[in-house]
Write a structure and sequence with these properties.
The protein is mainly beta and about 140 residues long. It has one domain (about 20-135): Sandwich (Immunoglobulin-like). It has strands at about 20-25, 35-45, 55-60, 70-75, 85-90, 100, 105-110, 115-120, 130-135. The strands form 3 sheets. It has a 4-stranded antiparallel beta sheet with strand order 4-3-8-9, with no helix packed on it. It is globular and about 55 Å long.
């Protein structure tokens, strides 16, 4: 509709600030995961401890016809003291990299070797980390 929301999904108030770094993708993983996305969240505030809820958004290949960003995971850091960092992990399961095919009325995977883009950050408008992977 072209309407810009007043506050993005994940917007929250805090008494500190956070930085995101070191995004990485590992193929496969536990529990039948297709991939695991890992990132580091650091409390960059000078005084206060705080916690952050990191969000993972996924962009599908164009042939899937999906929206440009889909929320696929959230991970909380727990309380971090100033300067302290924590790793956040997101497991992507087969359903996370599938789309609903209306023709067959079933979930379908993109073709072999399809590239996906993962973005990680603190809200839908602040996604500083990006990594592309094949699933």
């Amino acid at each position: 509709m072209g309407v810009e929301p007043a506050f993005p999904f994940g917007h929250g108030l805090t008494y500190t600030s956070f930085a995101y770094s070191d995004i990485a993708v590992t193929a496969g993983g536990s529990d039948g995961a297709v991939a695991t996305i890992t990132a580091t969240v650091t409390n960059t505030g000078p005084v206060r401890a705080g916690s952050e809820v990191a969000q993972l958004y996924l962009s599908f290949p164009a042939e899937a016809g999906e929206p440009p960003l889909q929320l696929k995971g959230i991970a909380a850091t727990g309380d971090l003291s100033p300067g302290e960092a924590a790793a956040v992990n997101f497991l992507l399961r087969p359903r996370d990299v599938s789309y609903f095919d209306e023709t067959s009325s079933a979930w379908a995977r993109c073709g072999a070797g399809s590239e996906f883009t993962a973005r990680v950050g603190g809200s839908s408008r602040s996604l500083p980390l990006t990594v592309t992977f094949t699933a």
